[in-house]
Amino acid sequence: MNYLDNVFAEFKDGDNQQQLELYLHHRDLRAEFDQIENEETTSMDPEPGLAQQVVIKPGRTKDQQSPFVKLKRWCFSILS
Questions:
Q1: Residue span of the structural domain in which 69 resides
Q2: What is the CA radius of gyration of the chain?
């Protein structure tokens, strides 16, 4: 495994704190981290091979976000 594969594996296997630290540390990989996060939230389909569309009601958007996304948005709100 090369360095990037290790970073992505750490991100996938890490808890919210580790994911946030990697996200903030590797600025150039943020698009890939976002893609991994999106894959994880949409890959929870009940039947293998079938894609499930995630529908979020407008009033519950913040409730259904992953803790990583919440932390990421909170950090950026402090920085701006």
A1: 3-79
A2: 14
Q: Per-residue pLDDT for 75 more than 60?
A: yes
Domain count of the fold of the chain = 1
Tokens standing for residue 47? 């039947």
Token pair of 1, please? Answer: 């495994």
CA dihedral 2, 70, 44, 14 (to 10 degrees): 30
Q: How far is CA 67 from CA 1, 5, 6, 51, in A?
A: 28, 23, 22, 23
* pLDDT tens profile 11-70: 999 888 898 899 989 999 989 988 888 887 665 555 555 566 665 555 545 556 778 888
Distance CA 69, CA 61 (A): 11
Tokens standing for 14? 């890490």
In sequence order, the 6+-apart residues with CB closer than 8 A to the CB of 51 are 42, 45
